[in-house]
Amino acid sequence: MSYVCPHDFVLKDNILFLNETRHVVKIDEPIKITKKEECFHSKGLKATLERTYASVGLFIFYLYTRKVKTSLKEEDYGKLVGTKAYYFIKNTQDSKPILFYL
Known about the structure:
globular, 2 strands, 102 residues
């Protein structure tokens, strides 16, 4: 995916299913951003693995807080600080994120 939009998913029985594929692109393809959408995209005109990963982190932040953000500051995390979700999201927002977890 180039970036994640909440409207691309449907929630059934507490499981998210991909419902829309318009944001699915190949790496290094141009990203098409519709200004009206509340999506989680990082800056840049092409889909890269790092930008997609950053978008996933912003989506996870949204799932916990219900706040749509395109970048995060330390004060945004609130009660998430110190949790597994916090460390995952922080990693996704790094300029050189670790893309592999054990």
